[in-house]
Design goal:
- This protein is mainly alpha-helical and 208 residues long.
- It is built from 13 helices and no strands.
- Helix 4 packs across helix 6 and helix 6 crosses helix 8.
- It is elongated and about 65 Å long.
- The N and C termini lie far apart (80 Å).
- The relative contact order is 0.09.
Length: 208
Amino acid sequence: MKHNLEKPESSFVDVEALAQHSSSRIRTILASSSTTPPAVLRLLATDKNSSVMLAVALNPACPLDVLEMLSRSSDRSTRLGLANQLDVCDEILSALVTHRNPYLASQSKQALEARAFEQKLRNGNVRCVKGNKYKLGELLVGARQLSSEDLEIALKLSQEHKLLLGRVLMQTGMVSPAVLHNALKFQMLLRTGEIEFSGSYEMIEGDK
């Protein structure tokens, strides 16, 4: 007896239906697949789940127009997720800055800028001094360089992506590198007792 090896029409996978599946894990797998049609990737690029959006951004088959759309995304978690994966040498990051994927290029540039900023801190002898007083976020809020709402978001992203708060603030553009540098230096001086807190945040506000 011969068996019909052809797949019945009922077994056809409706990828558009999968793109709207309730499981974010399934949507992420679909977004990662190089066989996913461009139209479906465009749909997944608007997904509310950052893991799905990140999978689309890193998909080699992702159309350029979708990548450009993602490069303008306001989803901070997606941008941080990609930045967190860019734990490679400066030479590779420099090469990625000119990548055809504008999303990847912009994050590579930000990763390089973050490393340059950290080197600036080391050169200026600004070091991390542990303590429960004078927390970075609270100092920035006190200096009106960061809103309480954005601080809450940044702290959540910091925990989610296992990144230092300063890196999150800079990578997302919540705080400029100059202000962040001043805030970290101010925090260090306060915690080491080299200066006393007078209620003024002039040192942070001085360089916007």
